[in-house]
Design brief:
It contains no helices and 18 strands. The chain is mainly beta. It has one domain: Galactose-binding lectin (Jelly Rolls), CATH 2.60.120.430. The strands form 5 sheets. The protein has a 6-stranded mixed beta sheet with strand order 2-8-11-17-14-15, with no helix packed on it. Strands 7, 9, 10, 13, 16 and 18 form a 6-stranded antiparallel beta sheet that branches. The protein starts with a strand and ends with a strand.
Protein backbone atom coordinates (compact mmCIF):
# COMPACT_ATOMS: atom_id res chain seq x y z
CA UNK A 1 0.00 0.00 0.00
CA UNK A 2 1.43 3.34 -0.97
CA UNK A 3 1.93 6.02 1.61
CA UNK A 4 2.13 9.46 0.04
CA UNK A 5 3.95 12.51 1.30
CA UNK A 6 3.63 16.08 0.07
CA UNK A 7 6.24 18.74 -0.23
CA UNK A 8 6.25 22.20 -1.77
CA UNK A 9 9.02 23.58 -3.95
CA UNK A 10 9.62 27.25 -4.26
CA UNK A 11 10.57 29.19 -7.34
CA UNK A 12 8.83 32.46 -6.63
CA UNK A 13 10.71 35.27 -8.30
CA UNK A 14 11.45 38.22 -6.07
CA UNK A 15 9.86 39.34 -2.82
CA UNK A 16 7.71 42.29 -3.83
CA UNK A 17 3.98 41.72 -3.61
CA UNK A 18 4.30 38.15 -2.38
CA UNK A 19 1.49 38.19 0.19
CA UNK A 20 -0.40 34.89 0.60
CA UNK A 21 0.45 32.76 -2.40
CA UNK A 22 -0.04 29.23 -3.62
CA UNK A 23 3.18 27.37 -4.32
CA UNK A 24 3.95 24.51 -6.63
CA UNK A 25 3.37 21.21 -4.93
CA UNK A 26 4.06 17.57 -5.64
CA UNK A 27 3.19 14.39 -3.81
CA UNK A 28 5.43 11.37 -3.90
CA UNK A 29 5.13 7.82 -2.73
CA UNK A 30 7.39 6.09 -0.28
CA UNK A 31 7.21 3.16 -2.66
CA UNK A 32 8.13 3.49 -6.30
CA UNK A 33 6.36 6.05 -8.48
CA UNK A 34 7.05 7.31 -11.95
CA UNK A 35 7.84 10.88 -12.87
CA UNK A 36 4.90 12.77 -14.25
CA UNK A 37 4.23 15.47 -16.76
CA UNK A 38 4.07 19.18 -16.11
CA UNK A 39 1.10 20.60 -14.23
CA UNK A 40 -0.68 23.90 -14.65
CA UNK A 41 0.74 27.05 -13.07
CA UNK A 42 -1.66 29.18 -11.07
CA UNK A 43 -2.01 32.86 -10.36
CA UNK A 44 -0.52 34.80 -7.49
CA UNK A 45 -3.59 34.31 -5.35
CA UNK A 46 -5.25 31.12 -6.53
CA UNK A 47 -4.28 27.86 -8.12
CA UNK A 48 -5.32 24.26 -8.52
CA UNK A 49 -3.20 21.31 -7.59
CA UNK A 50 -2.70 18.80 -10.34
CA UNK A 51 -3.84 15.22 -10.44
CA UNK A 52 -1.85 12.22 -9.27
CA UNK A 53 1.08 11.44 -11.52
CA UNK A 54 1.84 14.98 -12.63
CA UNK A 55 4.47 17.38 -11.44
CA UNK A 56 3.74 21.06 -11.09
CA UNK A 57 5.46 24.10 -12.40
CA UNK A 58 5.74 27.37 -10.57
CA UNK A 59 3.65 30.14 -12.06
CA UNK A 60 4.01 33.19 -9.88
CA UNK A 61 2.99 31.16 -6.89
CA UNK A 62 1.19 28.73 -9.16
CA UNK A 63 -0.20 25.36 -8.29
CA UNK A 64 1.51 22.08 -8.84
CA UNK A 65 0.58 18.50 -9.32
CA UNK A 66 0.72 15.32 -7.38
CA UNK A 67 2.14 11.88 -7.76
CA UNK A 68 5.30 11.46 -9.82
CA UNK A 69 7.33 14.39 -8.55
CA UNK A 70 8.37 15.87 -11.89
CA UNK A 71 10.41 15.10 -14.93
CA UNK A 72 14.10 15.61 -15.54
CA UNK A 73 15.43 19.12 -15.74
CA UNK A 74 18.66 20.94 -16.30
CA UNK A 75 18.08 22.98 -13.15
CA UNK A 76 20.85 22.36 -10.61
CA UNK A 77 19.31 23.96 -7.55
CA UNK A 78 20.57 27.01 -5.72
CA UNK A 79 24.27 27.52 -6.36
CA UNK A 80 24.53 30.03 -3.51
CA UNK A 81 22.82 30.79 -0.22
CA UNK A 82 22.47 33.96 1.80
CA UNK A 83 22.06 34.60 5.50
CA UNK A 84 18.64 35.96 6.38
CA UNK A 85 18.76 39.77 6.68
CA UNK A 86 19.94 40.69 10.17
CA UNK A 87 20.76 37.10 11.11
CA UNK A 88 23.56 37.23 13.68
CA UNK A 89 23.45 33.57 14.68
CA UNK A 90 21.13 34.18 17.63
CA UNK A 91 17.45 33.20 17.46
CA UNK A 92 16.09 34.66 14.22
CA UNK A 93 12.38 35.42 13.77
CA UNK A 94 11.13 34.25 10.37
CA UNK A 95 7.56 35.48 10.91
CA UNK A 96 5.65 36.65 13.98
CA UNK A 97 2.52 37.55 11.98
CA UNK A 98 2.39 41.19 12.94
CA UNK A 99 1.29 43.97 10.59
CA UNK A 100 4.82 43.98 9.13
CA UNK A 101 4.28 40.44 7.83
CA UNK A 102 1.09 41.31 5.96
CA UNK A 103 2.80 41.83 2.59
CA UNK A 104 6.09 39.97 2.68
CA UNK A 105 8.59 38.77 5.23
CA UNK A 106 12.31 39.60 4.88
CA UNK A 107 13.19 36.23 3.32
CA UNK A 108 10.05 35.29 1.40
CA UNK A 109 6.29 34.99 1.75
CA UNK A 110 3.35 32.70 2.40
CA UNK A 111 1.54 30.01 0.42
CA UNK A 112 -1.31 27.50 0.64
CA UNK A 113 -1.96 24.38 -1.44
CA UNK A 114 -4.41 21.54 -2.01
CA UNK A 115 -4.05 18.31 -4.01
CA UNK A 116 -5.48 16.48 -5.92
CA UNK A 117 -7.84 18.52 -8.10
CA UNK A 118 -11.01 19.11 -6.15
CA UNK A 119 -9.33 19.19 -2.75
CA UNK A 120 -10.21 22.16 -0.56
CA UNK A 121 -7.40 24.60 0.22
CA UNK A 122 -7.13 25.97 3.77
CA UNK A 123 -7.95 29.55 4.69
CA UNK A 124 -4.92 31.36 6.12
CA UNK A 125 -5.43 34.76 7.75
CA UNK A 126 -3.07 36.89 9.79
CA UNK A 127 -5.08 38.13 12.74
CA UNK A 128 -4.46 39.06 16.37
CA UNK A 129 -0.72 38.58 15.93
CA UNK A 130 -0.96 35.00 14.69
CA UNK A 131 -1.53 32.95 11.52
CA UNK A 132 -5.06 31.55 11.78
CA UNK A 133 -5.47 28.40 9.66
CA UNK A 134 -8.95 26.93 9.12
CA UNK A 135 -10.09 24.04 6.95
CA UNK A 136 -13.20 21.93 6.41
CA UNK A 137 -12.40 19.19 3.89
CA UNK A 138 -14.81 16.29 3.29
CA UNK A 139 -12.92 13.12 2.44
CA UNK A 140 -12.82 11.83 -1.12
CA UNK A 141 -14.06 8.32 -1.86
CA UNK A 142 -10.85 6.93 -3.34
CA UNK A 143 -8.15 9.62 -3.17
CA UNK A 144 -6.25 10.93 -0.14
CA UNK A 145 -5.88 14.69 0.04
CA UNK A 146 -2.75 16.71 0.83
CA UNK A 147 -3.56 20.20 2.03
CA UNK A 148 -1.31 22.72 3.70
CA UNK A 149 0.30 26.08 4.30
CA UNK A 150 3.87 27.28 4.43
CA UNK A 151 6.47 30.01 4.18
CA UNK A 152 8.81 30.04 1.20
CA UNK A 153 12.35 31.43 1.37
CA UNK A 154 14.20 33.48 -1.24
CA UNK A 155 17.84 34.33 -0.60
CA UNK A 156 17.78 37.09 -3.20
CA UNK A 157 15.36 39.08 -5.33
CA UNK A 158 15.95 36.86 -8.37
CA UNK A 159 14.69 33.82 -6.46
CA UNK A 160 17.68 31.61 -7.29
CA UNK A 161 19.47 31.63 -3.93
CA UNK A 162 18.52 29.66 -0.81
CA UNK A 163 18.75 30.68 2.84
CA UNK A 164 21.80 29.63 4.87
CA UNK A 165 20.85 28.65 8.43
CA UNK A 166 24.07 26.86 9.38
CA UNK A 167 24.36 29.06 12.47
CA UNK A 168 21.14 27.51 13.81
CA UNK A 169 19.94 24.18 15.21
CA UNK A 170 16.44 24.09 13.75
CA UNK A 171 13.07 25.81 13.43
CA UNK A 172 10.63 26.46 16.26
CA UNK A 173 7.07 27.75 16.28
CA UNK A 174 4.11 28.23 18.63
CA UNK A 175 0.92 26.37 17.78
CA UNK A 176 -2.52 25.82 19.32
CA UNK A 177 -5.98 24.71 18.26
CA UNK A 178 -7.72 21.58 17.01
CA UNK A 179 -7.15 19.12 14.16
CA UNK A 180 -9.72 16.35 13.70
CA UNK A 181 -10.34 13.79 10.97
CA UNK A 182 -6.84 14.09 9.50
CA UNK A 183 -3.17 13.97 10.44
CA UNK A 184 -0.68 16.86 10.45
CA UNK A 185 2.96 16.92 9.39
CA UNK A 186 5.73 19.53 9.51
CA UNK A 187 8.71 19.77 7.17
CA UNK A 188 11.71 22.04 6.69
CA UNK A 189 12.32 22.16 2.92
CA UNK A 190 15.68 22.41 1.19
CA UNK A 191 17.10 22.33 -2.33
CA UNK A 192 18.18 18.68 -2.27
CA UNK A 193 14.68 17.50 -1.33
CA UNK A 194 12.94 19.52 -4.06
CA UNK A 195 12.61 17.89 -7.48
CA UNK A 196 14.59 19.88 -10.06
CA UNK A 197 12.38 21.92 -12.34
CA UNK A 198 13.13 24.54 -14.97
CA UNK A 199 10.59 26.80 -13.26
CA UNK A 200 12.03 26.41 -9.75
CA UNK A 201 15.51 27.88 -9.66
CA UNK A 202 16.27 26.63 -6.15
CA UNK A 203 15.19 23.00 -6.61
CA UNK A 204 18.05 20.55 -7.10
CA UNK A 205 16.80 17.08 -6.18
CA UNK A 206 15.92 14.07 -8.34
CA UNK A 207 12.39 13.30 -9.53
CA UNK A 208 10.21 12.21 -6.63
CA UNK A 209 12.09 14.25 -4.02
CA UNK A 210 10.34 15.32 -0.82
CA UNK A 211 11.53 16.67 2.51
CA UNK A 212 11.65 14.70 5.78
CA UNK A 213 8.45 15.12 7.82
CA UNK A 214 7.38 14.95 11.44
CA UNK A 215 3.82 14.25 12.56
CA UNK A 216 2.50 16.58 15.24
CA UNK A 217 -0.65 17.10 17.28
CA UNK A 218 -2.16 20.21 18.83
CA UNK A 219 -4.09 21.24 21.94
CA UNK A 220 -6.06 24.31 22.92
CA UNK A 221 -3.06 25.43 24.97
CA UNK A 222 -0.25 27.16 23.09
CA UNK A 223 2.81 24.90 22.79
CA UNK A 224 6.25 25.67 21.38
CA UNK A 225 7.43 22.96 19.00
CA UNK A 226 11.13 22.51 18.24
CA UNK A 227 12.04 20.96 14.89
CA UNK A 228 15.82 20.39 14.69
CA UNK A 229 17.52 20.00 11.33
CA UNK A 230 19.14 16.70 12.38
CA UNK A 231 19.08 14.17 15.22
CA UNK A 232 16.58 11.82 16.84
CA UNK A 233 13.88 14.49 17.18
CA UNK A 234 14.19 15.86 13.64
CA UNK A 235 11.67 15.25 10.86
CA UNK A 236 12.46 11.87 9.28
CA UNK A 237 12.10 9.98 6.03
CA UNK A 238 12.17 11.98 2.87
CA UNK A 239 13.67 11.29 -0.52
CA UNK A 240 16.62 11.29 -0.96
CA UNK A 241 17.05 9.61 2.45
CA UNK A 242 19.36 12.30 3.77
CA UNK A 243 19.17 14.98 6.43
CA UNK A 244 18.00 18.45 5.49
CA UNK A 245 20.85 20.65 4.24
CA UNK A 246 20.48 23.68 6.48
CA UNK A 247 22.82 25.68 4.26
CA UNK A 248 20.30 25.50 1.38
CA UNK A 249 16.83 25.99 2.86
CA UNK A 250 13.84 26.85 0.67
CA UNK A 251 11.01 27.08 3.22
CA UNK A 252 8.92 25.55 6.00
CA UNK A 253 5.59 23.78 5.67
CA UNK A 254 2.62 22.42 7.65
CA UNK A 255 0.48 19.75 5.96
CA UNK A 256 -2.88 18.10 6.69
CA UNK A 257 -3.32 14.63 5.19
CA UNK A 258 -6.92 13.50 4.69
CA UNK A 259 -7.26 9.74 4.15
CA UNK A 260 -9.61 8.47 1.45
CA UNK A 261 -13.06 7.74 2.84
CA UNK A 262 -12.66 10.17 5.74
CA UNK A 263 -15.95 11.80 6.75
CA UNK A 264 -14.45 15.27 7.15
CA UNK A 265 -11.17 16.88 8.18
CA UNK A 266 -11.52 20.00 10.32
CA UNK A 267 -8.63 22.29 11.22
CA UNK A 268 -8.72 25.40 13.37
CA UNK A 269 -5.22 26.32 14.53
CA UNK A 270 -3.02 29.33 15.12
CA UNK A 271 0.69 29.33 14.23
CA UNK A 272 2.93 32.06 15.62
CA UNK A 273 6.54 33.06 16.30
CA UNK A 274 8.19 30.96 13.58
CA UNK A 275 11.95 31.27 14.08
CA UNK A 276 15.36 29.70 13.64
CA UNK A 277 16.88 28.72 16.99
Amino acid sequence: MKEFRMRAFFGILGLAGAGFMISSVTSVGCSSSSGGSTGTGGSSSTGTAGSQGTAGTTGGGGSGGSGGGGGASTAAGCQASELAPGDTGAAYVIADFTAMDAGTIPIGGFFTYASPTGAVAPTAVQENGGWHITLTAPGMATDPQYIGVGIYFNGNAAGDECIDATAHTGVKFDISGTITGCTAQYSTNDSAHSAASASDKKAGGPAGSYAPQKTFTTTATVATMMMPFAGADAPAGGSPATAVDKSKLTGVQWQFTVAAGTAVCMVDIVIDNVAFY
